[in-house]
Amino acid sequence: MSENILEIRHLVKNFGGNEVLKDINFNVKKGDVICVIGASGSGKSTLLRCINMLETVSGGQILFHGENIVSGKLSVAAYRKKVGMVFQNFNLFYNMSALKNCMVGLRRVLKIDKLNARRIAINYLHKVGMAPFINARPRQLSGGQQQRVAIARALSMEPEILLFDEPTSALDPQMVGEVLAVMRTLAMEGLTMVIVTHEMAFARDVSSRVVFMHDGVICEEGLPKQIFNDPQKQVTKDFLARFMRG
Amino acid sequence: MDTFFQWISYIIDNSGLSMLRGARNTLIISFVATILGCLIGFVIGIVQTIPTNKNDHAIKKFLLRLIRVALGVYVEVFRGTPMMAQAFFIFFGSALLFNINMSMWFAAFFIVSINTGAYMSETVRGGILSIDPGQTEGAKAIGMTHYQTMTSVILPQALRNIMPQISNNLIINIKDTCVLSSIGIVELMYASRGAAGANYRYFETFTLTMIMYLAMTLFFSRLLRVIEKKMEGELNYDLATHDTLAHTSGMYNYPMKEGKR
Ligand SMILES: Nc1ncnc2c1ncn2[C@@H]1O[C@H](COP(=O)(O)OP(=O)(O)OP(=O)(O)O)[C@@H](O)[C@H]1O
Ligand SMILES: [Mg+2]
């Protein structure tokens, strides 16, 4: 079980003259739960968006099962079926119920018949505790509920990796817990995840590896207890000290 | 005052039927042309918002740019000139230049549709651009193509947002088809002029004409508002507490909150 699902090699991203990601290298193995932490503006979101090809990569390679998707034959849409994403602002489709949100990808992208699509969607909505709300529209749900539906929508595609970009930072404090609880369960079940987060307690408890980003590079990376208890670099210490103080 | 109402009833008796027939034609033309115009508008609005990126083929980029320039010219020309001038220009121009003798009805539908299309294309483009980019990203993230994203996510939302402008266009078309009377289309304005001339009663006839136009526009603006309301969807939702699927597939039990009703 040591094969890499994803290998990021020398990834570079510029916005105009602004180099936001500078030579990023890291691998994701099956079952990894990687938490990406770092100061605001360090390039965490940009990294996730590059991995999911929502931004065009400026240089380097992203290998998915050894196949380069930056310039390879694999179509972007086909690749995205396997790599899900959960956004800070949920991005649920406003014109559909919670159930339809989870079904639309199954129906239109994976071409699964209606009955099975419904079964799969409800199964995952149930898993995130949103089964009673299948008929609700996104605007009728609280932030925490919307994010759980968004997680169910991503899970319904049964992706190999799920990317999370600060899934709880748009939520009121009392709703953070319900979303993190769902993510904890997914981690325990062995889903491969890359999570950008400011929830340090969550990162420490749940992740198999922590990546600390600073100024567009991976500054330090390791087991959670190494990063949190015994950081090697001064910037990591400063960041954690600032964060723990609040 | 007595004579006013006597004349009104006289006109209704003598010309009422022809005016009603004219009103019917007004409605048919404005209805069909609004629908066709919206189709034109959607096609153009969709073409104008096709994303391009660096990796696209050079021919695709060139063609797309060419089409966009042509569509841009079309929109500017038809929004920037009066429909009556367009009517003469197209009706007589097509006969002279291309030897096409348009039938009256074809000319009517053609002119009003193409005019509505020019306005609607900008509306649709704006409607598409006004949808939160997060919706597109959400769709891309589950592997949808541009086409799937447009048809499942963006266009339904854009359509809902621009319904008021579509209604507005229908109302404008009901009124503005009157310019077609100048190329001999027998709609309400043409019929009214005929009725007024035959009886030498302009004021009374056009009182009736005004009432008929107003009745049509009021009726349709109310009707369309009801449809808009329908499209906004239910304000409330039912908790699916009796959905068998939702409860037999149980593997996990999260503490459930009370839903809002
Ligand atoms: N579309 C864009 N155009 C230009 N610059 C951008 C764009 N998106 C991000 N940037 C810049 O890239 C840098 C990194 O942004 P990014 O959003 O990846 O940071 P982040 O680590 O996710 O921060 P936060 O914790 O605040 O979400 C920032 O300096 C930002 O200004
Ligand atoms: Mg971010």
What's the helix and strand layout?
The complex is a heterodimer of chains A (246) and B (261).
Chain A: E1 4-15, E2 18-29, E3 33-38, H1 44-51, E4 59-64, E5 67-68, H2 76-82, E6 83-86, H3 98-109, H4 114-127, H5 143-156, E7 161-165, H6 173-188, E8 192-196, H7 200-206, E9 209-214, E10 217-222, H8 224-229, H9 234-245
Helix pairs in contact in A: 3-4, 3-5, 4-5, 5-6
Chain B: H1 2-48, H2 58-79, H3 83-98, H4 104-129, H5 133-141, H6 146-176, H7 188-199, H8 202-231, H9 244-248
Helix pairs in contact in B: 1-4, 1-6, 1-7, 1-8, 2-4, 3-4, 4-6, 5-6, 6-8, 7-8
Bound molecules: adenosine-5'-triphosphate and magnesium ion.
Adenosine-5'-triphosphate binds at residues 15, 18, 20, 38, 40-46 of chain A.
Average residue-wise pLDDT of chain B? 85
Q: SSE order of chain B, as H and E?
A: HHHHHHHHH
Percent of residues in beta strands of chain A: 25-35%
Question: What's the mean pLDDT score of chain A?
Answer: 93
Beta strands of chain A, count: 10
What small molecules accompany the polymer chains?
adenosine-5'-triphosphate, magnesium ion
